[in-house]
Specification:
Layout lengths: L2 H8 L11 E5 L2 E4 L4 E4 L2 H4 L8 H13 L10 H14 L5 E6 L2 H13 L5 E5 L8 H5 L4 H4 L9 E4 L4 H7 L4 E6 L2 E2 L5 E2 L4 H12 L2 E5 L23 E4 L10 E6 L19 H16 L2 H17 L4 E7 L2 E6 L4 H10 L2 E2 L1 E4 L2 E4 L7 H17 L4
Parallel strand pairs: 3-15, 5-6, 5-7, 7-10, 10-11
Antiparallel strand pairs: 1-2, 2-3, 4-12, 8-9, 11-12, 13-14, 14-17, 16-17
Helix pairs in contact: 3-10, 4-10, 8-9, 11-13
Bound molecules: pyridoxal-5'-phosphate (PLP).
The site of pyridoxal-5'-phosphate has 15 residues, from helix 5.
Length: 389
């Protein structure tokens, strides 16, 4: 029996049938069990920042595991403290901050959601199209009806407003609002970039009503947009930032960062985790940060991202290209993204059909010029093969 058949018999059917059975990877390339090679333009959904099997990540994880693997949060370790300090330094926020580590994005948002309750308020304002995770709390903050409906009732007192509409956002915030939660760039929605001034308007509304501004940078953070954080260019200082995905470069880790008063809202006994902040995960994240700096990947991501967006937009069957750095979304003339993703796979490229008419790319930050050029050269043929006209 094939792995696909054994998968169907032994794994819960939450994801639908897997598209490939992958065997190994190197850089931005992966190989399936038949030996077929693919250029990975999705990077494990914006996770594999250093691509696959990067020697620095392998060395950090294996070296830490050989030295000290898991210790629980009754204890701390050098990597844990160093990573917290590195993240706070990368944020370069004027306010002092503190970090809580988790193992995933949804756990980071879950912890942050609990943190907002410590204000004594419960109301949260969130954007339509937002994705914040699948656990019950994070799901309450996620807008997609199909994800929510089977699990209601979810934690309440959540108001959804159209993403990018500063007026609607400002009007939704009241003196009962604990937090405004936004992705600086919406990822799962197919890459929606916050319009200029939007985050500043959110900051102003939060300040006016004494609410927290919480930015979910789980997908957009850690260099993906060519900056350490997608919100950096706005100059806005949030109260809470949540991270995961690219943070560990493929090793599971998430983080909640509280700045200013938000740094101390969670008190002893308020929250916990067995695995979160373990030395191996923290060593992995430190290696990701050191490699992004050492290989000057932020500059690379900025330049290569622009090149890819320009190349994609050159085809008239693409109606819009959005994004920053290597978080890229494009709209097709017709609802053909599933066919386009299938045709791309057939041509040896992994892309994601985020919505019926939208393709998302979130390749490793180490994607080479050659791989990008090969994809752009193949792109018109992929659209032909998918019957997009
Ligand atoms: C992926 C994602 C999450 C959830 O992260 P998981 O690790 O899958 O739980 C939350 N927020 C955003 C913006 C994401 O892209």
């Amino acid at each position: 029996m094939s792995y696909q058949e054994r998968y169907a018999a032994s794994l819960m059917n939450t994801f639908g049938p897997p598209k490939l059975v992958l065997a190994r990877g190197e850089g931005a390339h992966v190989w399936d069990t038949e030996g077929r090679e693919y250029v990975d333009l999705l990077g494990g959904i914006a996770v594999n920042a250093l691509g696959h099997a990067h020697p620095a990540l392998v060395a950090a994880v294996t070296g830490q595991l050989e030295t000290l693997g898991h210790i629980s949060n009754f204890f701390t370790s050098g990597p844990q403290v160093e990573l917290a300090e590195r993240l706070l330094a990368l944020l370069a926020a004027p306010a002092p901050g503190k970090v809580f580590f988790t193992n995933s994005g949804t756990e980071a948002n879950e912890a942050a959601f609990k943190l907002t309750r410590r204000t004594g308020r419960t109301h949260v304002v969130v954007a339509e199209g937002a994705f914040h995770g699948r656990t019950m709390g994070a799901l309450a903050l996620t807008s997609k009806e199909a994800y929510r409906a089977p699990f209601e009732p979810l934690p309440g007192h959540v108001t959804f407003v159209p993403y990018g509409d500063a007026t609607a956002l400002t009007e939704a915030v009241t003196d009962e609002t604990a937090a405004i939660l936004l992705e600086p760039i919406q990822g799962e929605a197919g890459v929606n970039v916050a319009p200029d001034g939007y985050l500043a308007a959110a900051r102003a509304a939060a300040d006016e009503h004494g609410a927290l501004l919480w930015l979910d940078e789980i997908q957009s953070g850690m260099g993906r947009t060519g900056a350490w954080f997608a919100h950096a260019a706005s100059g806005v200082v949030p109260d809470i930032v949540t991270l995961a995905k690219g943070l560990g470069g493929g090793f599971p880790i998430g983080a909640v960062i509280g700045l200013g008063a938000a740094a101390d809202l969670l008190e002893p006994g308020n929250h916990g985790t067995t695995f979160g902040g373990n030395p191996v995960a923290c060593a992995a994240a430190l290696a990701v940060i050191a490699t992004i700096e050492g290989e000057e990947l932020l500059e690379h991501v900025t330049v290569l991202g622009q090149k890819i967006r320009d190349g994609l937009a050159a085809d008239p069957r693409v109606t819009e290209v959005r994004g920053e750095g290597l978080l890229i979304g494009l709209d097709l003339v017709s609802d053909s993204s599933a066919a386009v993703a299938a045709a791309a796979l057939e041509a040896g490229f992994i892309v994601n059909n985020a919505t019926p008419c939208r393709i998302r790319l979130a390749p490793p930050l180490v994607l080479t010029q050659d791989d990008a050029a090969a994809f752009l050269a193949a792109w018109p043929g992929i659209l032909d093969a998918a019957g997009v006209s």
